[in-house]
Amino acid sequence: MSARSTDHTTITIERHFKAPLSRVFNAWAIPEHKQQWFACHGEWKQLDFQLDFRSGGSESNRTAATDGVVHAYEARYIDVIQNERFIYAFDMMLDEVRISVSLATVSFAPEPGGTKMTFVEQVVFLDGYSDNGSRLMGTEIGFDNLRLYVEGDDGRPN
Questions:
Q1: Are 45 and 63 in contact (CB under 8 A)?
Q2: Interhelix angle for 21-29 vs 134-151, to 10°?
Q3: 83-105, pLDDT tens digit by residue?
Q4: Going by DSSP bridges, is the β-strand pair 45-51/6-17 parallel, antiparallel, or unpaired?
Q5: What is the pTM of this model?
Q6: Quick count: other Cβ atoms within 10 Å of Cβ 149?
Protein backbone atom coordinates (compact mmCIF):
# COMPACT_ATOMS: atom_id res chain seq x y z
CA MET A 1 0.00 0.00 0.00
CA SER A 2 1.35 3.42 -0.94
CA ALA A 3 1.57 6.25 1.57
CA ARG A 4 -1.39 8.63 1.61
CA SER A 5 -0.83 12.37 1.80
CA THR A 6 -2.38 15.74 1.00
CA ASP A 7 -0.62 18.92 -0.04
CA HIS A 8 -2.82 22.06 -0.09
CA THR A 9 -2.22 25.22 -2.09
CA THR A 10 -4.16 28.16 -3.50
CA ILE A 11 -3.70 29.56 -7.00
CA THR A 12 -4.97 33.07 -7.76
CA ILE A 13 -4.81 34.53 -11.26
CA GLU A 14 -6.25 37.88 -12.36
CA ARG A 15 -6.60 38.62 -16.06
CA HIS A 16 -7.81 41.65 -18.01
CA PHE A 17 -9.34 41.05 -21.43
CA LYS A 18 -10.07 43.56 -24.18
CA ALA A 19 -13.43 41.92 -24.82
CA PRO A 20 -16.99 42.35 -23.56
CA LEU A 21 -17.84 40.56 -20.34
CA SER A 22 -20.49 38.40 -22.04
CA ARG A 23 -17.93 37.15 -24.58
CA VAL A 24 -15.46 36.18 -21.85
CA PHE A 25 -18.15 34.48 -19.73
CA ASN A 26 -19.59 32.61 -22.73
CA ALA A 27 -16.13 31.35 -23.66
CA TRP A 28 -16.43 29.24 -20.49
CA ALA A 29 -20.15 28.48 -20.77
CA ILE A 30 -20.75 27.40 -24.38
CA PRO A 31 -19.22 24.00 -25.26
CA GLU A 32 -18.18 24.97 -28.81
CA HIS A 33 -16.46 28.07 -27.45
CA LYS A 34 -14.67 26.38 -24.56
CA GLN A 35 -13.25 23.67 -26.81
CA GLN A 36 -11.48 26.38 -28.82
CA TRP A 37 -9.26 27.54 -25.96
CA PHE A 38 -9.34 25.12 -23.00
CA ALA A 39 -6.45 22.79 -23.94
CA CYS A 40 -3.03 23.79 -22.65
CA HIS A 41 -1.20 21.30 -24.93
CA GLY A 42 -2.18 21.60 -28.58
CA GLU A 43 -0.37 18.41 -29.59
CA TRP A 44 -2.43 16.20 -27.26
CA LYS A 45 -5.31 14.13 -28.68
CA GLN A 46 -8.87 14.94 -27.55
CA LEU A 47 -10.64 11.74 -26.43
CA ASP A 48 -13.84 13.12 -24.89
CA PHE A 49 -15.38 16.49 -24.05
CA GLN A 50 -18.79 17.22 -22.50
CA LEU A 51 -20.05 20.43 -20.90
CA ASP A 52 -23.34 21.14 -19.11
CA PHE A 53 -22.66 24.64 -17.77
CA ARG A 54 -25.31 25.34 -15.14
CA SER A 55 -25.70 24.99 -11.38
CA GLY A 56 -25.75 21.22 -10.86
CA GLY A 57 -24.20 20.60 -14.29
CA SER A 58 -20.95 18.84 -15.06
CA GLU A 59 -17.97 18.81 -17.39
CA SER A 60 -15.71 16.03 -18.58
CA ASN A 61 -12.52 16.40 -20.59
CA ARG A 62 -10.14 13.55 -21.45
CA THR A 63 -7.00 13.94 -23.53
CA ALA A 64 -4.07 11.69 -24.35
CA ALA A 65 -0.58 13.12 -24.06
CA THR A 66 2.02 12.30 -26.69
CA ASP A 67 3.37 9.58 -24.36
CA GLY A 68 -0.11 7.96 -24.19
CA VAL A 69 -0.94 9.00 -20.62
CA VAL A 70 -4.63 9.96 -20.35
CA HIS A 71 -5.28 13.24 -18.54
CA ALA A 72 -8.86 13.38 -17.22
CA TYR A 73 -10.70 16.40 -15.82
CA GLU A 74 -14.12 15.89 -14.18
CA ALA A 75 -16.01 18.91 -12.84
CA ARG A 76 -19.31 19.68 -11.14
CA TYR A 77 -20.75 23.19 -11.30
CA ILE A 78 -22.02 24.27 -7.89
CA ASP A 79 -23.09 27.88 -8.49
CA VAL A 80 -23.46 29.71 -11.81
CA ILE A 81 -24.56 33.34 -12.01
CA GLN A 82 -24.58 34.55 -15.62
CA ASN A 83 -21.90 37.15 -16.39
CA GLU A 84 -20.88 37.42 -12.71
CA ARG A 85 -19.30 34.23 -11.35
CA PHE A 86 -19.27 30.48 -11.20
CA ILE A 87 -17.98 28.01 -8.65
CA TYR A 88 -17.04 24.44 -9.46
CA ALA A 89 -15.31 21.44 -7.94
CA PHE A 90 -13.09 19.21 -10.04
CA ASP A 91 -10.63 16.39 -9.92
CA MET A 92 -7.70 15.57 -12.17
CA MET A 93 -6.51 12.07 -13.00
CA LEU A 94 -3.51 10.61 -14.81
CA ASP A 95 -4.72 7.35 -16.34
CA GLU A 96 -6.67 5.88 -13.39
CA VAL A 97 -4.81 7.72 -10.61
CA ARG A 98 -6.47 10.77 -9.01
CA ILE A 99 -3.75 13.39 -8.52
CA SER A 100 -5.79 16.34 -7.22
CA VAL A 101 -9.15 17.68 -6.09
CA SER A 102 -10.00 21.39 -6.36
CA LEU A 103 -12.60 24.01 -5.63
CA ALA A 104 -12.46 26.96 -8.04
CA THR A 105 -14.22 30.31 -8.24
CA VAL A 106 -14.15 32.42 -11.40
CA SER A 107 -15.56 35.93 -11.13
CA PHE A 108 -16.03 38.61 -13.76
CA ALA A 109 -16.39 42.39 -13.68
CA PRO A 110 -16.73 44.93 -16.47
CA GLU A 111 -13.97 47.50 -16.68
CA PRO A 112 -13.15 50.27 -19.14
CA GLY A 113 -12.25 48.62 -22.44
CA GLY A 114 -13.11 45.08 -21.39
CA THR A 115 -13.42 42.55 -18.62
CA LYS A 116 -11.57 41.65 -15.44
CA MET A 117 -11.57 37.93 -14.59
CA THR A 118 -10.36 36.56 -11.26
CA PHE A 119 -9.67 32.84 -10.89
CA VAL A 120 -9.06 31.29 -7.45
CA GLU A 121 -8.36 27.56 -7.14
CA GLN A 122 -7.99 25.80 -3.80
CA VAL A 123 -6.23 22.57 -4.71
CA VAL A 124 -5.30 19.44 -2.79
CA PHE A 125 -2.57 17.35 -4.42
CA LEU A 126 -2.90 13.73 -3.39
CA ASP A 127 -0.65 10.89 -2.28
CA GLY A 128 2.77 12.30 -3.05
CA TYR A 129 1.94 13.77 -6.46
CA SER A 130 4.59 16.43 -7.00
CA ASP A 131 3.10 19.23 -9.11
CA ASN A 132 6.26 21.39 -9.26
CA GLY A 133 4.21 24.34 -10.54
CA SER A 134 2.76 22.57 -13.57
CA ARG A 135 -0.87 23.33 -12.52
CA LEU A 136 -0.16 27.06 -12.39
CA MET A 137 1.74 26.91 -15.69
CA GLY A 138 -1.00 24.92 -17.44
CA THR A 139 -3.70 27.27 -16.13
CA GLU A 140 -1.72 30.31 -17.30
CA ILE A 141 -1.33 28.74 -20.77
CA GLY A 142 -5.06 28.07 -20.86
CA PHE A 143 -5.80 31.69 -19.98
CA ASP A 144 -3.35 32.87 -22.67
CA ASN A 145 -5.42 30.79 -25.11
CA LEU A 146 -8.61 32.31 -23.67
CA ARG A 147 -7.21 35.79 -24.35
CA LEU A 148 -6.43 34.90 -27.95
CA TYR A 149 -9.91 33.45 -28.35
CA VAL A 150 -11.97 36.31 -26.87
CA GLU A 151 -9.83 39.13 -28.26
CA GLY A 152 -9.22 37.59 -31.66
CA ASP A 153 -12.39 38.17 -33.69
CA ASP A 154 -14.80 41.06 -33.19
CA GLY A 155 -17.35 39.29 -35.41
CA ARG A 156 -17.66 36.30 -33.06
CA PRO A 157 -21.03 36.07 -31.31
CA ASN A 158 -21.07 36.95 -27.59
A1: yes
A2: 120
A3: 999 999 999 999 999 999 999 99
A4: unpaired
A5: 0.90
A6: 20
